[in-house]
Amino acid sequence: TWVNFSAKTSSGNLQTLYESKLDKKGKRFTPHSGKKTFIFFVDDVNMPMHDRYGSQPPWELLRQTIDQKGFYNLKKFTLHNVVDTIFIAACAPPGGGRNTVTPRLFRHFNMIWLPDVPQRSMEHIFTSILKGFL
Length: 134
Fold this sequence. Notes:
alpha/beta
């Protein structure tokens, strides 16, 4: 499942997404029947705004789900386990509305850095593609 974080993403949005995309079996959330592993791809993970206390609840819910292998039901205060689920995240460098992500969250991910492609290389790539269509 592809998840796009934005400045307006809340922890409630993320929890609703968990509950809608996974099957609930007792206190466990598992991939839909027939699937062995479920993959959550979180794009723009560094977009959520800080709340008035300086924290970012969507990050904390994501981190809690990875750390504790589940999230808490806010009505019954019980832990719902999330099993057979992989989390992948992507983001751009901080700036322009993007925030610096806390090391508490990023410690769960392997980092891959892709440098910017020079203008000349981009022109060569797109010129080659366009010549193929002409």
